[in-house]
Amino acid sequence: MEIHPKQKQIEKRLISISPMLTRDTDELQLINIEKNVVKIRMKGNREQDVNSEDTLKKIIQIQLKQVFPEIESVELSD
Question: 3-state class of 37 per DSSP?
Answer without folding.
Answer: strand
